[in-house]
Amino acid sequence: MRPILALNFKNFATATGSNAVRLAKLANAFAQKSNFEVILSPVYSDLEAVALVAPHCAVYSQHVDLVEYGQFTGSFSI
Questions:
Q1: CA-CA distance, 65 to 56, in Å (whole number)?
Q2: pLDDT at residue number 67
Q3: In the chain, what's the furthest Cα-to-Cα distance?
Q4: Where are the alpha helices (DSSP H) in 1-78?
Q5: pTM summary value
């Protein structure tokens, strides 16, 4: 079994939008060169962009809340 590196992006401004894509590219490069299984968990709105730039990583969904930036992992509610 390979070691796992799981990155939960939470809802920090430094890990959303274009920053999420930048982190995903770095994680993807690490996944290609290491023996680690890399799991990325960006905010809901960044799932597609992260998945597109990180084909060597597993991309899991968080849930979404209507909260400000910070150390939140939210839930998607309608």
A1: 28
A2: 61
A3: 40
A4: 18-33, 47-53
A5: 0.81
